[in-house]
Structures are given as C-alpha cells and as structure tokens.
Design goal:
heterodimer, A: alpha/beta, six-stranded mixed β-sheet, 20 helices, 14 strands, B: alpha/beta, Rossmann fold, 18 strands
Amino acid sequence: MSRGAVPEAPEFTSGADAHRSTAAKPPRARGRIRKILIVNLTRFGDLLQTSPAIAALKRQHPDAAITLMAEKNFADVCDGIPGIDHVYRVELDRLGNRILEGGSQLLEAYRTVEHVIAELRAEHFDLALNFSSSRMSAVFMGLLGIDDVRGWSMTPDGLRVIRHPWARLFATMCLHRRYATFNLVDYYCAMTGGLADTRRLAYTVAPAATAKAATVLSELGIGDDQRFVALQLGASRAIRQWPEGSFAALGTTLVAAGFRIVIIGGGSDRPLGDRVAAEIGAAAVNTCGKTGVGELGAVLMRAAALVTGDTGPMHMAVAVGTPVVGLFFGPASPFDTGPYAADHVVVQTGAPCAPCDHNVTCLDPFCRDQLAPEAIAAAVVARVGNDWNAIEALARNVAPARIYRTGFDREGRFVSTPLGSPIRRREDALRDGYRASFLHVLEGVPLPAPMPAALDLTPFATVAQLARDGLAHAAQLAKLAQAKQPRIADLERLGRELDGLDRALKEHGGMHPDTSPLTQMFTFGKENLEGDDVATLAVETARLYRDLARCADDMVVLLGGAQRKEEENDARLHQ
Amino acid sequence: MSTPRSDNLAVLATRAPALATAIAAVVIPPTHQLATTAGGARTLTIGGVPLQHLVDPVGEAVRWARATVERLEAVAATRVVIVGLGLGYHVEALAERFTGAIVVVEPDLAVLAAACEARDLTQLLGRIVIVGGDAAPADTPAGERVLVVAHAPALVIAGGAYRRVLQAWQSQAARSGLRLKVLVVTPLYGGSWPIAGYAARALTELGHETHLLDLAPFHDAFLGLDRFGARRSNRRVLESGFCDVMSAGVAATVDAVEPDLVLALAQAPLGPTALDAIGKRGVLRALWFVEDFRVMTSWRDLAKHYDYVFTIQTEACHEAMAQVTDARLAYLPCGFDPRVHRPLALDRAEQAELGSAVSFVGAGYRNRRLSFRRFVDLDFKLWGSDWGAAEGFGRVLQRNGTRIDTDDSVKIFNASKVNLNLHSSTYHEGVDPRGDFVNPRTFELAGSGAFQVVDRRELLPPIFTADRELAVATSIPEMRALTEHYLAHDDERLAVAARARTRALAEHTYTRRMEDMLATVIGAAQERLLSRRRTVTVGDVARAGDGELERFLARFDATTPFTLDRLAASLTKREGALSEPEAIFLFLHQFDELYLREHRA
C-alpha cells in the first residue's frame, strides 16, 4: 500500500447491513415499498421544493402511495403537487396554543400527539423521509417506529440520529452555509435514492384557480394581454425583506419600461402593498390577501417575471414556469435555496457577512442596500427579453453584489453560475471543492480537473492523515473483535485511541474552519452508529474514516496545493 | 306546637348538637332587635346596625348571591366560608346558586338564636355547616379550593369581632390548598443572607414552588467599586448605580419567573422603581425586615413600595413604619433550620479544637467587647471577627478572629457547655435595657440543643420561657453568675437545653415562620391569588389507572408542576428505551423550544 493512498476498508464477515454503508446506495429492500410518508412541517415554499423528490419516489416506486404530512396552514399547496396521494394535515397552531395554555391543556396536547402517532402507525408505512431538520421532528420520527427512516430521527433510547448520508450532509452544510453548494431540492431527491429528472418544481394550477385569478386581475384593471411584473414585497422575517422604498423605485422604473406592476402577498402584506402601490402609481395594483395559493400560481403564470426575495412565491413562480429575479441577502443563499429551474436570475449581496445564520438578529442589515433598484430593474427587463448578454454585462457593474444564472450540472443537480466573471473568492473555491469531493465520495462522480486556489491545504492533509490513522485503528479493532476470544484490554486500548483521534479531529475542525465540514460530517456519521456488536461498529467506523480520508485528499487534489511533503504525514496530532 | 325556633333547633341538633344546646340556652339581649318589614320579612339590627336591607332583604340577598357566585367561579372554589349569618337571607340565596360546600361562621350565639326564632331555616340548616361561637377555623379538606367571604353588614358591628374571625378563617384557608410561586431575594451579604436561604427551603417544604435569587455572587463586584477610588459623593452615585442594576436584574427575574409573591430580605438590593414595576404586574411584594428598625433605616424609603412588611420588632416599629406605608405590617421573628442547627456528635479532634466551657460566636460589637472581658478567666473561647487587636482577647480569640461559617458555628454551639448570647449594641456597655427583638442566634442555639445564657429582651418571653428553656440575664454580672451556676450543674443545664430544643422544634422553625408569613399574605390576598393562573401540578392532572401515561405521571410527586420543563428534565437522568409518554412529552418540549420560546419572550 503506497503512502498517501487510502486503504480499502477490509471485508469482514460481520454481516453488516448494506444500508449502513456511507455510500448512497438504496436501503436493503425489505419487501416492496407500498406506503411512503414524507414529513415536511415547514412553509409552502419548502413543500413545493419537495415536488422533485416526490417525482423521484414515484419513478422508483410507481405503485407506492405517498402521504405528505404538512402543517395545515400551508398544506393547501399540496393539492397541486403531482404525485401526492394523501395529505396528512397537522394543526401546529392549535398544538402550540395548548402548550402555551399549559395545565390541563398540556394534557390535551399530549392526547393530540398520541392520536396523531396512532393514526400514522396504523398506516404501516414502509419508508419515511423527514425533510424537517429539527430535534422536534427527530423525536416524532422516533415515535412513529418506521423501520426505514431517512433524515432526522431518534433511537429508542432517545438519541438523535440523522439517517442517510445526504441528510447528514445537509445538516453539515446548514452549519457551514458559506460552503453550502447543493440545493435543498437535491438533498431531498438524494435522500429518496435517486436524482430528480424534472429539473424544476412542479405545481398544477387548477382551472378554478385560473378563473378566479383572472377575475381578481380583471377587477384591478389588468387585462388578459397586459404585460406585468409581479412583486413579492413581504418575507417571513424582516431581515429577508427588501426595503419598501426599493420596491417602489423598482416598480416605478419598470412602469417606465412599459410594464404594469402586480403586487402579490398574503393578507398581512396588504398595508405594505398599498403603500408601495401608491408610490408607484396607477400602473400598480395590490392583490395581497385576494388570492389563495392556487390563485397565486395562476397570477404568477401570467406574469412576465417575478421579483422576490427568497420566499414561497419564488418557488411557486418556478413551479409554474415564470422567470424569477431573486433578491438574495441576509441569510438567503443562491446555492442552497435558489430557484430550482434553469435560467432564473439571482442577485446576491456581496456583504462579507452573507449569508448570515438563519437565527441571527442583525442590527444593521446593510446587505439589502447593495441591491440597487435600477440594477434589479435592468435585470428584469433583460430577463423578460431573454437577453443574457445584457445580464452578463450588468453583472460586471453591480459589484460587490453578484448575479447568478441558475442551471443544472451534467447529472442534473442544481448549480448557480456567477455571471460577469467575478473575482473568485476563497469561499467559492472551497464550495466548489466540497461539491466535487462529496459527489465523488457519496455518489462516485469522478473528480473534475483541479481548480487551484490560493489556500493553505495543510489542514486538509492533516485531516487525511488523522483519518488514515483512524482507519488503521478501526481495522485493527474489527479484526481483534472478530477473534474467538478477544483480549478485552486490547479492545479497550484501541477504543481509547479511537476516542482520542475523534477528539483530535473535532479540535482540528474547530481550529481550522475550512476543514470543519469534513470533521462535522464525520461526527454526524459517528453519532449514527448503532448497535452493540463491536466488530460491526468497528467496520462502520473504518468506513467513516475511509470516506473522511478520501474527502480530505480530494480537497487537496482539487484545490491544487503544494504536494504534501513526506514529513507532514507524521503530524499525528493525537499523539 | 312547633315554632320556627323549635324546628330550627331540632334540625341543628342532628347536625351540631353542642351548638344547638348552646343556642337554646341563649337569652337574646336588647341590643339585638327583631322587626318585620311591610312585606312581612323579618329583620335584625344589632346596636342599631341592620344586618340586612330593611325593606327588601330578599332582593338584596339575591344581588349579593349573584355577585358572590361570580367570585366563586372566578377562583374555581369548591367551598365557601361566610362569616356572619344574619337572618340567613344571603346564605339561602347563595345556596340556590352554588352547589359547593357552604360553611357559615357566626361568632355571636345571640344572632344564631335570633335567626332561629325569626325564620324557618330548617332547609338551610340541613344544607350548610354552621360554626358558632369561638370555634377555631377548620382545615380545608384536601383537594378543595375555598373562598372566605364576609357578610358585609356584620363587619360594621362595633368591637371588630367579625373582622377578627374573618381574618382567622382567611389565614387558616391560606394554610392549606393554595400553592404559590415565590421568588426569594437575598441581600448581597450580611446576617440576613442565610435567612433567605432558610426561608426558601421552608417554602419549598411547604409545597410552594420557590425560586431563590441569591445575589451574594455580586458582593465582590460591589466591593470592587473601591477600585475607582471615588470621593464620598461619587461613591454614593456608584453604589446607587450598582443597586439600580441589581434592581433591574431582580425585575427581570420576576418577569421571567412570574411569581405570585416576591419575598425580599432586609438589605436586598431592590429599589422603588423595580418594586413598583413588580407591583404593576400584579405580583405581591413582601419585605422581611430582620434588622433593628432604629439602626437600619432603609425601610423609610422602601416600605411604601411593598404590600407586606414583616418585622422582628413590634409596636414602636409598626408605629414608625405606619407613618410611611400602607403596607400590611406583621410581626415575624427569626427562627432556625432544623437541618442546619441541630445536635451534633463531634469527634475528639473537633471537640478539642471547638469545645470549651463557655463560648461566644459572632462579631465584636462594642457592648460585647466591653462585656466579654469578664469571662476571659474562664475556659472561654471567643469566635468571630472585629474583636480588635488591643482588646485583651488574645488568649481566648480563636482562629485569629476570622469569620466563622455556619457549619462551624453549629459545631461550636454543640461543643460548648455554655453559649453566651449577648445581643449586639453599638452604644450600650452591656445589656440593652430596652432591647426588644430576639436575634437569630437565640433560635439557632435552642434548635441545636445547646445551652445558652441570653440577655433580657422585651420580646423573648412569649418565645422562650426564662429559666426553663434558657437562662436570661438582665446584666453582665448576672450573665456571669448564671454561667457559673450552670457550669456547676450539668443536669440542670442539659435539661434546660433539651426543653429549649423541644420548644424550638414545635414553634420556631423557619417552616413555621413561612406558614405564618403566608397566612398573612394569602389571607389578605386570597381571592386575588386564587384567580391568578395557578400552577397546575401533576397531582391535578394525574388520574388513577394502569395506562402508560398514568404510570409515567405516578413517578412524580403530586406537587410537581405539570410543565414541559419539569417533565423533560426528568428524562435527562433516565436510561434505557423511552416509553411512549416520555417520547411524547419530549416531542412537546422540543416543539415548545422550536416554536414557542420566542413567543413567550
């Protein structure tokens, strides 16, 4: 075995289940999959983003019935998503009110959950996918007791597990958003075991919704043949909301370019819509609160384009085929929640702190100001006219903001490609490196040509070496554990050394943030090892170390640092 | 021939025979005048005070009953105690509208006799419980919620007897059933600091949800203000600013904990602005002023911002405080904690180090420094700080005059044959001839089973009996003489100490003090507290049964608050597979963390 090469994990006759492999192989079939449950308790945009995964499931299991569990307030959108056979609505508001009330109402909340669990258990689902990444959903999945769960779940003794390597990768990248590279939709699809072949979101607007939308628009003076741009003003949180003055300026410029403006949103956005419409003038109308989710889709189908932040309506526009000009600032990133279809435009702030954490409270969201209304208007006009040259030219003039064009790679995974040839930053290099490396290790996709970057790659080399040490130890442990009478003292010693290596990896990731996605992915993998059989656990551990070493080596190769010197291989931090 | 009187007494005889006999023997005095309205209804006046409407007593009674039923429903009361029967109109009207238990307390037997004579109360007497004369208030049956109300006209009657009875029944009701959430706030340091801890523990023992806000960690920061080297005027500004920060912190804790009652010990850094804000939230504010009101005068500015002020002194103190506050004032002496102040068996080394014939533990106030010189010729050990280098205590002062902690103090009490207990004074030379309050040491010594010679205090007699439970000296020579006497009479000394401990355990624990404190607080604010959102306990929701949920809840004490935080906390200590109830409550807890915490804040 040559120095630096990652040894293959030895084969053992431990009977380890194939599905425990860190490679993204489909789970071992335990009979036909007849009933599938998808849990997604987030907002309607996320539900739309589930549509490609549903299509992937239907392709793999054409006879299976798919139930989607969704929050009642947002579940109506599921009626238009193809492939959903049954929607299980849960009233989280009501549950929350009972919990807030406390006392006997807390007991009622208990009974409610008990009832939901009983109903879902009675369905005897064969497969469940948890697309809600939270401890709460993990406990819920644990309660359901479904054999094949992918995503966050809970062991019988109350430990959080994240089942499926792509779910673990998603959790990892949520903690490292600057390097996040895969779209949420692609994570969902990967968890089903197959890629989406739709390359866009799916939503079918019902005829009744189309008719009602036409009436709403007509009453507001928007004729069937009138070109209009839709503006989504509101957002789920203030930090995601572009200033209303900016929207007003944008609308005014677009009116001057010959468009009408249709403001969309919920009832709570109505006052905001009125103010902006008033400022734009008679060419603008406010439909906030006048449309349900189906009518929203119908209105967007007629729009020449939608200008929006990272919102549910953005995903609806994608699903109905309307061009989007997305305004991404604050915690929004075009890589992980960008409009999932080709040829949409995303304008992203160049603020060094973006994307910020989802839970941050920002006292000075200056990032929003980098998206100038005039530039956005120019992007809209160019996109409506399909003038990508103009958008490319615009991209060269909006720095530090960036303009991206959405698309898909050869395998059909979402990509956001920066336009205007902006300067490649270190996070861009790391993002690209992680994308290629994880695809290589998880999916077997060949590595692309190196993309040299001015980065210190020594930390990655250190991770690789630590991982190789771990692999050797784990292999030795597995061999010892398989012996007829294993020496307990040796097993314990190796176990302690592996613990030491794990600590060293964790510390290393903390001290070298560029490598943290690797060490975190490894940690999530270790947390998911279940069972008491030492040999089996050792084999699984060895696989995790092997994958870690491969990823780390890939990063070194891809990002083209100086060749590792022989003596660096002796940097055994754990000793 | 039957009369209303004979029929009424016959019914009463089956339910309260002793009371019926007592009523039968009553001669109604001339002050109690029965009359008849134009409509034929009977009325009763006492000393000119009518006990009901003189034209339409029935209509008045119905209005009263409707309003009272609303009050009962607001607090979910299952039992009502009405002080004052009058001629029974209001009780009849209430009995038609309230299905719970009705107890009527009528301290005046003549009123009972007049009512029996004037009206047919046979149906009413079969429905209610009558408590007559000076019978002591009864306990509230377990599981019931009681509201004590007054028949208002009776409170007007001269002498205040009805008012006293009302307060007694309210206090008794307060002792049972109502579970409060109490925040106890300590001072930064000083003698009242440990008392806060004892009080909090006692409140928890009584079944109340108690949160102790210990501000002692901030004492070093307060002392650190010295670093600024400020002039006196600036120093005051700094200290005031520091106290403002402490006050704001306490107010923030109140906001987070949402107690029913804040109990602050004397010298707790809690200023007027914070107290007013706390009061505006509907939280009751009580101050336990365990200091000499003449020496520590902070009460002058603060007492008016409290609802209750409890003191270790009485008349003069209350008179002075009443000038500046409308708060309810009540006497509440210190006590002891039986888990801390208790008899101990010491090993030989401890006895050698800590033991002596005579000892004193405490700070060297002026009167003590002057007085204890008279004991240095004995086998005398002096413990504590501030005894001064040149005072002549070199031979007897232990541990170089360092402060002695509570644990060692209790050991010293136990290791000494005679414990001197001289109340401090900064200006007397020996015994303060007008000293009134009783210091904590008196109770702590008694609780520890330790013999003490204590200086005479005005408020000592009802607490302990001199010569029986402790030796009381009116002067320092007498203190010396008593010390010598009891050193020479071991049996006598041990018997006195044993009796003191018995008395202390029966009457002077902090648990008892907190019961009394709460009786005053709850008695006066019962309805307000009952109508506040109660903390539902596991006992409230648990039902008998063999289901998984029932088995899960059975693991908790019935008084455990039925909250997700408490239930989830119990899961951190468990091992093995989660049961379904455990997992569901864990789910609800996570739901709360994910969606609702921000909403609560």
